[in-house]
Amino acid sequence: MTRAKNTLRVASVNVNGIRAAYRKDMANWLENRDVDVLCLQEVRAPDKIVRELLDESQWHILHAEAAAKGRAGVLIATRTTPNSHGELLEGAHVAERAHIGDDYFTDSGRWVEADITLPNGETLTVVSAYVHSGEVDTPKQEDKYRFLDRMLVRMPELAEHSDHVLIVGDLNVGHTELDIKNWKANQKRAGFLPQERAYFDKFFGETGYVDVARKLAGDVPGPYTWWSYRGKAFDNDAGWRIDYHMATPALAAKAVTAVVDRAETYDQRFSDHAPLVVDYQF
User: Fold this and answer.
1) pLDDT in tens, the chain (282 residues)
2) Helix axes 139-161, 194-203, angle to 10 degrees
3) Which of 110, 148, 217, 272 counts the most CB atoms within 10 A of its CB?
4) What are phi and psi of 209, to 5 degrees?
5) Radius of gyration over every alpha carbon of the chain, rounded to an integer in angstroms
6) Backbone φ/ψ region at 99: left (φ over 0), alpha (ψ -120 to 50), beta
7) Smallest Cα–Cα separation from 281: which of 168, 119, 160?
8) d(CA 264, CA 34)
9) Bridge partners (DSSP) listed for residue 126
10) How many CB atoms lie within 10 A of CB 68?
11) Residue 277 CB: number of other CB atoms within 10 A?
12) How many Å apart are CA 176 and CA 196, to the nearest integer?
């Protein structure tokens, strides 16, 4: 996909295990996508392996590994070589924060923040987030609500801290009926519960963030980012839009394109999620 000059390309995807994704040719997707900032969720691998797979000669990597082996893990990587226009993100990471601010989630591998100084001198804070999938009437759902509660605190803090904030990742909630193909059948399931959706009303309401992909797509079904591996969900496009770019308003206004890199066929997928790739023009 071609891109305009002076754009920052940010890609986010839940890889469902980076080792498995690379076995399914994720490297080919990444090599040809001209990404400046890469955010991954469910990395599920030791830091050493992650750095070998991504190639530290081309990426500056911030990886919040989960204490529980084979679980969660989030990552932010910034390109250290020029993009297709010969432009280089010359900013430096001036801070890295590996959890959301509640000690309960320390080492959970679900939230990593990085401050990037842009070429124009402004600060962009990028977050790669992985919200719990949850399960109704279980401790998993309680953890999900606790994490979403903490997001409501952290998001305004970040907006005060930086010129621009971008929170991306697998947030495991469909906000509206447009975000799930079979929404009627899922109203009592984790991922589309009224209480979960109310958090997103606040994120995109009083908290002041913008749902970038929805803003660019308009009021249309999807575009979906996750399809179950079971049955014919992918072939029938029975998906969920649960992966987001949430931006502060000035940054959201710079978004020019948002694309879901949906594989052409079921067997060409490297994850059950598809990457969400957005270009921001400065």
Assistant:
1) 678 888 999 999 999 999 999 999 999 999 999 999 999 999 999 999 999 999 888 899 999 999 999 999 999 999 887 788 777 765 545 567 777 989 999 999 999 999 988 888 899 999 999 999 999 999 999 999 999 999 999 999 999 999 999 999 999 999 999 999 999 999 999 999 999 999 999 999 999 999 999 999 999 999 999 999 988 999 999 999 999 999 999 999 999 999 999 999 999 999 999 999 999 999
2) 0
3) 110
4) -85, 165
5) 17
6) beta
7) 119
8) 19
9) 114, 166
10) 12
11) 23
12) 11
Residue partners of 162: CB distance under 8 A and separation at least 6: 115, 123, 124, 125, 248
Rounded to whole angstroms, the Cα distance separating 282 from 280 reads 7
CB 63 within 8 A of CB 98: no
Residues linked to residue 59 through DSSP beta bridges, in sequence order: 79
Measured CA to CA in angstroms, residue 177 lies from 4, 18, 182, 193, 231 at distances of 33, 31, 9, 11, 22
**Which residue has 């009224």 as its token pair?**
194
C-alpha to C-alpha distance for 272 and 270, rounded to whole angstroms: 7
CA–CA gap between residue 20 and residue 43 (Å, rounded) = 10
Rounded Cα distance between 212 and 174, Å, is 14
- Counting DSSP H helices and E strands in the chain, the numbers are 7, 12
**Which pTM value belongs to this model?**
0.96
